[in-house]
Amino acid sequence: MTTNTTHITTTARLDFAKSAPKVFRALIGFDAAAREGLDPALVELIQIRASHLNHCAYCLHMHTNDARKAGESEDRLHMVAVWREARHFFTEREQAALALTEAVTLVADGGVPDEVYAQAAAQFDEQELAHVLALILTINTWNRVALSTGKVAGTDERRR
What we know:
8 helices
């Protein structure tokens, strides 16, 4: 039997933005470019689902708050983690994006199945699909930055 061990950071870690400012700015630029032309609600759903899968409390807290500010309903936010069991809360387009998010986020578990890709390709034109993929890549990168540098949920440091 395996146990799921959670490690909570208790020691200070590097400030990624200060330690690698050019890399940080490039990631911000990649993230901004990925979002272009995508529905803001879809952007947040993708970021929330990837953050669930990556166990990134920092990003999950940030993106659920962003979704609320953008008018997302509490019902839908509560259903993102179990969207397959609550499909009626999400459009076919959102379902395709969520399935693709899961496949890309968990790519080591079996790649991106042809049916998942085909479902997304049927819902998005090529440019949109490229942006959805880019967004999935950026949130996975942000999750890894937050997790490896010990970011704490509830301490959103973005400047508004």
